[in-house]
Amino acid sequence: MEDGAQARSVGVVGAGIVGVALAFLLSKRGFDVTLFDRELPGKSGPSFGNAGHIAGSEIFPISNAGILTTAMRMLVDPNGPLKIDPFYVPRLTPWLFRFYLSGRHRAYEKATEALTMLSARALPSTKTLLAEAGLSNMVRHKPALYLYDSSRSLQSALPSWRAKRDRGHSFSVIADRRDLTELEPSLSHEFAGAVLSDDWGAVTDPYHVVTNLFEAAIAGGVKYRRQNVEEVLPAKHMITVGCEGEAFSFDKVVIACGAHTPFLARQIGDHLPIEAEGGYNYTYPASGLELNHPLILADRGIAATSISSGLRVGGWAVFAGLTSEPKQAYFDRIEKIAVRAFPRLHTLGGRAWSGLRPSTPDSVPIISQSARAKGVFYTAGHGHCGLSFAAVSAEIMLELLRGNQQAGRPFAIDRFKSLR
Questions:
Q1: Overall number of domains in the chain
Q2: Domain interval for residue 95
Q3: Which end of the chain is more exposed for a tag (fewer CB within 10 A), N or C?
Q4: 269 has pLDDT over 80
Q5: pTM attached to this predicted model
Q6: What are phi and psi of 277, to 5 degrees?
Q7: What is the pLDDT of residues 15-25, one digit of tens each?
C-alpha cells in the first residue's frame, strides 16, 4: 500500500479556509485529522472578510520590472492602494528586497508558471471540493469585470491581458461606456472602460463557506481543538503539537495559520518570508445594489462583490506588522471610493473590517515540506488568493503527504534561496 493510502494521523494548525479545506480533504481520503485554532473557524483573518472571489486569471506576481515606479506612485497618493508604516520599514526591508528580486527575469517567470497552474485549477478544484462537502450551491462561475479609470490605463493593461490569453485565459474588452452601463447599471459613469475576464467565480459568502465546510469536516470525522498552538516539536517518528499545557502527537503536522505561520516555523528552524499585509473593507447589508459580476477597480486596488450579507467593497495592501491596529482614516477613504464608484449606494449600517493577508515576496504560496523536519509541512502565504487557491493547495498537500514531493516543487520553501 502506498504511503498515505492508509489512515494516518495529521495535525492541521489553522482553521481559516486553507486549513479547513485541507482538513476536510484529508479526512475524506482516509487520514485521521485534528484541526487546531485559538479562534472559531474562519472568524479571524482574511477568511472572514475577503471579497469572495475565485480568481481564475491571476497568473502574474505583483512584483515586476516596473514595480519601483508603480510603488512610489502609490505611496505618495493618499488614496493609493499601497501603504507602508514608516516605523515598520526596518523590519520590512529584507522582505521588500526579496519582493524586488522576485520581479526580475527568471524568478518572475517561475512565479508566473506556478501561479498559472494554480489559477487554472482554482475554480474547478473549488467546485469539486465544495460539491464533495454538499455545498455546490455556494460557488458559481462568474466572469470578473476589471474597471479602468482612463482609456490610457485600459490600453496600458492590454499587453498583460494578451499575455494571459496566450496562457489560456480568455477575455473581452469593453471600451464603450454604454456597454459597461448595460453590464453593471449601478456603476458610476466615470470609468472609461473594462476587461471582462472569463475564468472567475464567486462564493455566496466567504465566511459561510468556511463554517459550512468546517461542519462537513467535523461530520466526516475531523476533530477540532480550540486551543492556541504554542509549539510544534519534531521527533524521530512523531510530531508533537503543544497547546496551553497539553501535548498531542501526530505522524505529520501541517502548519496553515496564515500570517502567523513564520512564528511556528522559526521554532523548527525554517525561515519563511511571509509578511502580514493588511486589507480593509466595508460590507453594506442594505446597499440597494446588486452587482452582476465580481468587480476589480484596477487603478484603485479595490474589489467589490455582492455576497449574501451585502455589498462588500475593499482591498489595499497595508504593511505595518502583525500587531498593528486598523486606522479609521483608511476605512474613511475606502468608503469614499465606494460612494464614488456606486453613486446610489446606501451606506447606512455599513460594517468595517480589517484583516491580515499572509504574503510572500513572489506572490506564490508556500506548499512545502519543512527543510528541517521531515514530518512538518507548510501551506501558507496565499496573499490575496487564499479562498481562490485553498482547494488546489489542499490537493497538492495531499500529494505531498502521500510522498509525492514533485507535486510541491514550484511551491517549496527552498525557492527563496535565490532571492537574497
A1: 1
A2: 9-69+80-418
A3: N
A4: yes
A5: 0.95
A6: -110, 110
A7: 999 999 999 99
